[in-house]
Amino acid sequence: MNGPRQKKTIHIVTAAAGVFAYNGYAATRMADVAQAAGIGKGTIYEYFRSKEDLFFAVFQWLAQDTGRQATLAIREMTGPVSRRLEQINDTIINKWLDQLNYYSLMLEFWSAASAPSMRHRFKQAFRNAYREFRPIIAALLRDGIRRGEFSEKIDAEAVAATLLGAWDALLLQAWFDSEFDALMTSRHFLKVLIAGLMNA
Amino acid sequence: MNGPRQKKTIHIVTAAAGVFAYNGYAATRMADVAQAAGIGKGTIYEYFRSKEDLFFAVFQWLAQDTGRQATLAIREMTGPVSRRLEQINDTIINKWLDQLNYYSLMLEFWSAASAPSMRHRFKQAFRNAYREFRPIIAALLRDGIRRGEFSEKIDAEAVAATLLGAWDALLLQAWFDSEFDALMTSRHFLKVLIAGLMNA
Amino acid sequence: MNGPRQKKTIHIVTAAAGVFAYNGYAATRMADVAQAAGIGKGTIYEYFRSKEDLFFAVFQWLAQDTGRQATLAIREMTGPVSRRLEQINDTIINKWLDQLNYYSLMLEFWSAASAPSMRHRFKQAFRNAYREFRPIIAALLRDGIRRGEFSEKIDAEAVAATLLGAWDALLLQAWFDSEFDALMTSRHFLKVLIAGLMNA
Amino acid sequence: MNGPRQKKTIHIVTAAAGVFAYNGYAATRMADVAQAAGIGKGTIYEYFRSKEDLFFAVFQWLAQDTGRQATLAIREMTGPVSRRLEQINDTIINKWLDQLNYYSLMLEFWSAASAPSMRHRFKQAFRNAYREFRPIIAALLRDGIRRGEFSEKIDAEAVAATLLGAWDALLLQAWFDSEFDALMTSRHFLKVLIAGLMNA
DNA sequence: CATGAATGAGGCTTCATTCAT
DNA sequence: GATGAATGAAGCCTCATTCAT
Question: Residue B162 is part of a domain; what is its CATH number?
Answer without folding.
Answer: 1.10.357.10
